[in-house]
């Protein structure tokens, strides 16, 4: 599995996040068919995984957590009923 930085392809999403939220840093990644949006503000990190075609696999969630969540932090995982959208929230 590889996280591929596709932020430049989502410039309107990034601008929208920066202008309408407290976010100071936004990155968009591709993990195959799964999109990963990483948002950081002064008090939290938010990561959203979304896949329109299928349920997000546990291996994908673990991979993203390992790569993007600081090791010394605890996190809260929110999963929708179809497991197509997952949010990871990390307090700083």
Explain this structure.
The protein is α+β, with helices and mostly antiparallel strands. It has a single domain (4-91), classed as 3-Layer(aba) Sandwich (Streptococcus thermophilus LMG 18311 protein like), CATH 3.40.1720. The protein has two helices and six strands, in the order E-H-E-E-E-H-E-E. Strands 1-2-3-4-6-5 form a six-stranded antiparallel β-sheet, sandwiched between helices. The longest helix is centred in the last third of the chain and has 11 residues, at 58-68. It starts with a strand and ends with a strand. 16% of the residues are buried. The model has no long low-confidence stretch (mean pLDDT 96). This is DUF1827 family protein.
What does the secondary structure layout of this molecule look like, with pairings?
Elements: E1 4-5, H1 11-20, E2 25-31, E3 34-40, E4 44-50, H2 58-68, E5 76-79, E6 85-91
- The best one-word shape is globular
Poorly predicted regions: none
Radius of gyration: 13 Å
H and E order: EHEEEHEE
Q: How would you sum up this structure in a few lines?
A:
By secondary structure, the chain is α+β, with helices and mostly antiparallel strands. It contains two helices and six strands.
